[in-house]
Amino acid sequence: MSGEVLEETVGPSLAAVVAKGSSLGVVLTAVICVNVGLILKIRWMSQTGGTRNPIVSHLVLCMAVINTATGVINIGSLMVSTIKGSYVFSSGLCQFIGYIGSMLLAGVTMMTMIAAVERFTKFMKPVDYPSLFTPTNLKIMIGGVILLILPIFAGPIYGFGEYTFLRGKIHMHLAVINITNETQLDISQMQATALKFYGFLHNEDNNITGSAAVRTKQNIRNFFSVSREVQVREIVISPTAIQFTLRAYNYAALSKLWKEQKEHTLGETLGNIVNDNYTLNLLQVQRLHFGTFMSQAEVEKYRQVPLVYQENSHCSLDYTDVNKNIKGFIGYQSIFTMVIPHCVIFYCYLRILCRRSEPTQPGSEITTFDSKIVRVFATSALLNFMSQFPHVITNILFGMGIFIQPAVYFLLSIFPYCSLVVLGLMYWATFAADVCRLCCCCCCPVENRSSETASMFEVSQVMLLRRNSSNAVNDRSAARVNILDSSA
């Protein structure tokens, strides 16, 4: 493709933006409505005494909270940037969104692992279940999972990876092509002066010129970032040129950069930044003239692939080779958030599937509700694996230079969040019968209730009577204290 066509390319069409924004809005609305409704329903059931297993209800409640937070943070930021046409938040906020969003997605997997262990204990160790899975122990487990995943996704803090919405890279070379001085310089003198300039920028540790070199490179970074919407990811100094690794924020920034490169004005613009008094006095020249070079093939490939993926404007871990030690971080993160949890999940449900019926002690029988819950939890774990695993694999392949169709990548990006809606609906269906029983208890005459509904009603009435009797005792105690105080 020619340079003229590249300059005319301004980004995705309005129809594509509307389609993506609408789909994200629908998914976000569904996630919020389904999971917030589930949270309110479980809270209502807990207050009315309608939960048959408080541990299961607490697990589902935690899953619904995590699902809601995941959808609001990840889908919300992605939808805003998609509608605006580019990422609109600051770099610091991008780090926060990437960290929290990745941690919440891992939290969904971790909660399904805790649910699998809970079901495994209920089916395989029913006698020990009441002592192992108490509300306090469950809170300790959830807190331990949070403490485990907090450092796993903090890789950028200790030098592993980077959370960003930018993808890919292009290279630009900046070289000294001419030198203006009072006396005419020959080629050897120009080469010597150019080498001295490159050495000046390279030697940041020098006590005299180091701070000036750092300041010059920082001025170049600021110029690209503020004036050209281009990130300077890396600066490499060689004896013949300066190589910049660049990332454009959007199509317009790339087109402007390519136009200046083609018209040979970018070098002069950078020369105005570099030619400060300190540098010129150090080199003992009047002015340095620069030229830039960018490969059109590399720029065109960058436009066709990374910028298209960048349309998603999603802050996540950058898997490209721009980041050092990224392979180690990928392995470290995948083992603790994907491999180990899913191995535990599959082991637990496989053991439950292959279990033998054994006599149990009174009070530890497996009920129909327990069997229903294990099917729901197992299905949710399988759905979570099927939604997250392809997305992780595509990101790793992207870092290796293997790309898929952008539309497929976008669908894989939102598929984990679509699964949050399905999970919420599954949990809704799980407790639907309990809600119906509670409603029947409130509305139906006693003689029209079924035996199961009646027992449900009796349990709730007992809990209400206990609560009322406790309140009455407290009121009588308070009255006695008031009488004693008044008599004193």
From TrEMBL:
Keywords: G-protein coupled receptor, Membrane, Receptor, Transducer, Transmembrane, Transmembrane helix. Gene3D superfamilies: Rhodopsin 7-helix transmembrane proteins. PROSITE patterns: G_PROTEIN_RECEP_F1_2. Residues 34-427 form the G-protein coupled receptors family 1 profile domain. It is a multi-pass membrane protein. GO terms for molecular function: G protein-coupled receptor activity. The chain crosses the membrane at residues 24-44, 56-76, 96-117, 138-158, 329-350, 407-429. GO terms for cellular component: membrane. The keyword Transmembrane applies. It is found in: Membrane. PANTHER family: OPSIN (PTHR24240). This is Uncharacterized protein LOC106177410.
